[in-house]
Amino acid sequence: MRAARLVAIVLVCAAVVAFLWLRRSAIEAERNPAATSERQPGTAGAPAATTSPAPAVPVTPRAAANPPAGLDRAALASPRTTVQTQLRLLEAGEQDLFRQTFLPSVQPQVTAEAFAACRKRVRQAPVRPDWEMAEASAAGGHRVVRVSMFGKSMTGFHEVDGRWLADALWCLPVGLP
């Protein structure tokens, strides 16, 4: 009886490992189709088509005549996801998408210099928002959650049209505009 249980456990573990391996392979293939695609008949020696890598965060599809794609609402669904999105965009170097995570009044402050300073700071110091001490309120007809990002000043995240947008460039070192 014990041997049968042991065999069953080993088979289940093997199935889980195989599933995870296949899933990982599929994700890698989606990220880099040129590396995994086979050449089509009649194209021997022709290079595989290259594609740009997937964006760091989901973007909303738009018609070609519309302005460039913006951030998906899911990327700004809560103050926490907004911070996670901001960190991913900083890491990926996506300044234009990063700018969209702030209130319209703050967006002009996201200059190339400010973006570079933010990237440098988040690489040097861990970003640990104090969500347990976050303060919820309402201002201007929408909800606001204020949280300490680096242990000092509070940054407000305002819910505007179902998206949570920051009211300050919390990632700038002290003393920079």
Describe the model:
The protein is α+β, with helices and mostly antiparallel strands and 177 residues long. Among the domains are: 2-29; 73-166, Nuclear Transport Factor 2, Chain: A (Roll). The chain has 5 helices and 4 strands, in the order αααααββββ. It has helices spanning 2-31, 33-36, 79-92, 95-99, 112-124, and strands spanning 135-139, 142-148, 154-160, 163-166. A 4-stranded antiparallel beta sheet has the order 1-2-3-4, with no helix packed on it. A hairpin with a 5-residue loop joins β2 (142-148) and β3. The longest helix has 30 residues, at 2-31. 16% of the residues are buried.
List the helices and strands and how they pair.
Elements: H1 2-31, H2 33-36, H3 79-92, H4 95-99, H5 112-124, E1 135-139, E2 142-148, E3 154-160, E4 163-166
Antiparallel strand pairs: 1-2, 2-3, 3-4
Tell me the series of helices and strands, N- to C-terminal. HHHHHEEEE
CATH topology of the domain at 73-166: Nuclear Transport Factor 2, Chain: A
Number-wise, the strands total 4
What's the CATH architecture of the domain at 73-166? Answer: Roll
**Biggest sheet statistics:** 4 strands, antiparallel
Q: What spatial order of strands do you see in the largest sheet?
A: 1-2-3-4
